[in-house]
Write a structure and sequence with these properties.
Helix content is 55%, strand content 9%. The chain is of the alpha/beta class.
Amino acid sequence: MFQSLSKNLEKAIKSLKGQGRITEINIASTIKEIRRSLVQADVHYKVAKQVTDDIKQKAIGTNVITSVSPGQLFTKLVQDALTDLMGGIHSEVRLTGHPAIILIAGLQGAGKTTLTGKLAHYYKKKNKTPLLVACDVYRPAAVDQLKTLGAGLNISVYTEPEEKNPCTIAQNAIQEAKNKAMDLVIVDTAGRLSIDEGMMQEIRMLKESLNPSETLFVVDAMAGQEAVTTAQAFNEQLNFDGVVLTKLDGDARGGAALSIRSVVHKPIKFISTGEKMQDLDLFHPDRMASRILGMGDVISFVERTEEVYNKEQQRSLQQKIKTNQFNLEDLAKQIQQIKKMGNLQEMVSMLPGLGKIMPDLPLEEDLFKNCEVIIASMTPKERQNPHIIDRSRRERVARGSGKTTQEVNQLLKQFDMIYKIMKKVDKKGFNVLTNLPGLLKKTR
């Protein structure tokens, strides 16, 4: 996400390198390029102009410290401007009431039903007991999809196949939640291909009936400026509490994320970056601005690692590395843990400079598939003692995995390289943080 914008902003700011100080003359072309980059990223022209005017005013009035270059200072000013544009600070979701109620609204195809499942998964990890409610009475596939998501997450789904009144279904679901001591109800609603009065009236009635603690508007980030227009229309009718941006893993230019806050004056609360249930993150404007400028988001990355790596696992891995016992079974486990962290392209964007190291690396879902297949074709003894895998064993593993002997040899070389990287793990145990760049770069 934001790849083109990131490259264009970096190119624009780079022109200030070598300058002794910031002046109105030497930043003129930089400001122009930044404005053009924002507009190309689908940020509304008036918003882009306001942002760049603010940057220009602050830049000219700022003294350059001797130890800081004009380029570095200007980067900080751009980062602050993008952060302010996207809301400044993270806005929490309010979960009040017994049960708390989250109402999901948006156009058809924005990803509302999938988001309903992701929110349930997110809050279940935070010790909530969610109930999903299928209030899309027009699209049977939506009910079936919600049932499938609930079954996969082991989360209850409330449906009434014969009832056609969404308000009745929702009220009955809330009573069900109270009866079963569930503390969170997430209501999936019907969408339309376009905004119409019937749809708006129905969602308004639902909100009035439920009085939810939080109403979230779901918008497809790939819709560009249309997303902003839709958000305005919904906000006028619903006065929603926050926005969720979906499909940020696609080819979206990102303009919606950058300008939706300033247009509807409502915070972005979550972003969705993939199809997996764990591909949902709280939205932090400052962290997103940092990622857009290619400076990564190490805080979010560490938070992700801590979700899949507990302290005992970190200690166990460190001990194996220290005692030279790290083997191919451990490598396979590391790969599984990394895959649990979510969208790989997003992970790369969180690490400063990693995108520049691997600009052309295809980060598809089966990036580690070859490694896993080859390791699975080895005997337990071979996985635990890679050094015993001689020529005949390599040929047998290649036949068993459907790979070539050359690919098996490559994996074993990569294991040696990865092991050396793991030996350099920091004292805090953030092994993935050090391991991932080498692992991604060399596994193909």
